[in-house]
Automatic annotation (TrEMBL):
SUPFAM superfamilies, A to Z: Regulator of G-protein signaling, RGS (SSF48097)
Transmembrane segments: none
Alphabetical list of Gene3D superfamilies matching this protein: 1.10.196.10, Regulator of G-protein Signalling 4, domain 2
Organism of this sequence: Buceros rhinoceros silvestris
GO biological process, one term: negative regulation of signal transduction
Taxonomic path: Eukaryota, Metazoa, Chordata, Craniata, Vertebrata
Cellular compartments per GO CC: dendrite; nucleus; perikaryon; plasma membrane
Protein name: Regulator of G-protein signaling 8
Membrane topology: Peripheral membrane protein
Protein keywords: Cell membrane, Cell projection, Membrane, Nucleus, Signal transduction inhibitor
Length: 164
């Protein structure tokens, strides 16, 4: 079973389409990673979007898919918010919040996420007194967008179906 998975993943890295180096998405050394990823695990990613996000190889595969669609900023923002919520230092909170805002939320941000005006303005107001929840609404909107839009396309993508 593992040998079959290694073969399928190995073949992906030799194909010449939009994801020509699948091994780049794997979080650690490819040989060890391939031995650990089973078809059953990859199949479980279809159970729910949150199952996919909670699995490190699922997250890596989804990131690779989003790169082919030029929309990886959504996932990067969601991950930045998850990391931000773990901030325990009050001193670091404001600077981390500012960095996330400038990178993903502000108009013309280098990796601007697609959120509505009201959410952007609410987040801007939240930045006046940053807290661990200041990005919650924006993060929720981006999560919902990925779940309803990108995730179903990922499940139909060649990247995912070749793993099964």
């Amino acid at each position: 079973r593992n040998r079959g998975m290694r073969t399928r993943l190995g073949c992906l890295s030799h194909k010449s389409d939009s994801y020509n180096d699948f091994t780049a998405i794997l979080p650690d050394k490819p040989n060890r990673a391939l031995k650990r990823l089973s078809t059953e695990e990859a199949t479980r990613w279809a159970d729910s979007f949150d199952v996919l996000l909670s699995h490190k190889y699922g997250l890596a595969a989804f990131r690779a898919f989003l790169k082919t669609e030029f929309s990886e900023e959504n996932l990067e923002f969601w991950l930045a918010c998850e990391d931000f919520k773990k901030t325990r230092s009050a001193a670091k909170l404001a600077s981390k919040a500012q960095r996330i805002f400038e990178e993903f939320i502000d108009v013309q941000a280098p990796r601007e996420v697609n959120i509505d005006f009201q959410t952007r303005e609410l987040t801007r107001r939240n930045m006046q007194e940053p807290s661990l929840s200041c990005f919650d609404q924006a993060q929720g909107k981006v999560h919902s967008l990925m779940e309803k839009d990108s995730y179903p396309r990922f499940l139909r993508s060649k990247i995912y179906t070749d793993l099964l």
